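Hey, I was hoping to borrow your eyes for a little while. A protein chain has come my way and I'm curious about its shape. Take your time with it, there's no hurry, and the full record follows here:
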Amino acid sequence: MGESDTLCFRPLVPAVQSEAVVIWKRYQVLSKAAQKCLDELTCDCITAANS
């Protein structure tokens, strides 16, 4: 990117954060991809809660 480019990164201060809620049916048969996604979300939530 050169000096004449109009794209500019401006960090937001304070950082913008949002909460999200993920809901799924218990005992629902999930595809391998959906199960992996749910596993990753669950792991990330547990990690975030412990930090």
The two ends are 37 Å apart (CA to CA). The first helix runs from residue 32 to 50. The chain has a mean pLDDT of 83. Residues 10 and 16 are 12 Å apart (CA to CA).
